[in-house]
Amino acid sequence: MEKALEFALFRTFAVPSVSRLLVATGEFVSRTRKRYDDTELILYEILENGMESVRGRTAIARMNAMHGRFKISNDDYLYVLSTFIFEPIRWMEQWGWRSFTAIEKEAILINYQQLAKRMGIQAVPQSLESFEAFNRAYEREHFSFDPANKIIGDKTLELLLGFYLPGRFVGLGKPFAYCLMDTPLRRAMGYPDPPGMLQLLVRIVMKAKAWVMAWIPEPGKPVLGTKRNRPSYPSGYSIENLGTFSPRK
Fold it and tell me: pLDDT per residue over 156-199, tens digit each?
């Protein structure tokens, strides 16, 4: 599911209005790892503690303060939210050891509908079907190549591959990552189509991994994202200091 959310990021980068804003702020380009950690930590604080907890409310306030500095359209907000709903669902259907149940899908929808309320997002679709229809229509209309897409995408891809590969081998991992992207996404990001045999190999490996995962017992206690060691915050972090802030005058 975490991998699905990472690839959901790339879908947002395929929208020029989003990627241009990210390039303009400079954060994703100059401090990619910190920006990635900040995004994960804010979302994990909300997910793990609940939206009505003190930490959850603080994380939402920090997120709203960051977004409030910029002119972001309601549809852009809605689309980013939709990727957090549907990319995990689609990823599990394609690569997971089992798909989400109908109740789990509904729970994901309700979770993000509630988050949308707290973010001030308007006209939120009320069903999975209508929200997915919005998601598909938005991509058909807004996916297009822009140099900013590739700038942000390359930085993020290098970061994600760096979790598994030494720096000198990161380039070798890129074609494998392209195999996990659909054609419209690759086109909008300016990425090439990987060879057919490589795509087949990746499908076989991912399906084999799913088969193995089905037989591995689930961990006895949750692995919390907020407790993970992060190079951006070797001594810990406070929610109030996560993310970006207005430049000091």
Answer: 999 999 888 887 888 899 999 999 999 999 999 999 999 999 99
**Amino acid identity for residue 44 in this structure:** Y
- In this predicted structure, what is the pLDDT of residue 240? 93
pLDDT tens track for 72-128: 999 999 999 999 999 999 999 999 999 999 999 999 999 999 999 999 999 999 999
Q: Which two tokens stand for residue 86?
A: 């549907």
DSSP per residue over the chain, as a string?
-HHHHHHHHHHHHTSHHHHHHHHHH-HHHHSHHHHHHHHHHHHHHHHHH-TTSHHHHHHHHHHHHHHTTS---HHHHHHHHHHHHHHHHHHHHHHSSSPPPHHHHHHHHHHHHHHHHHHT--S--SSHHHHHHHHHHHHHHH----HHHHHHHHHHHHHHHHTTS-GGGHHHHHHHHHTTS-HHHHHHHTPPPPPHHHHHHHHHHHHHHHHHHTTSPPPSS---GGGS--TT-TT---GGG-S--PPP-
- Is the pLDDT at 36 greater than 50, yes or no? yes
As a whole number of angstroms, the distance between CA 212 and CA 57 comes to 38
Domain ranges of the chain: 2-217
Distance (Å, whole) CA 208 – CA 43: 30
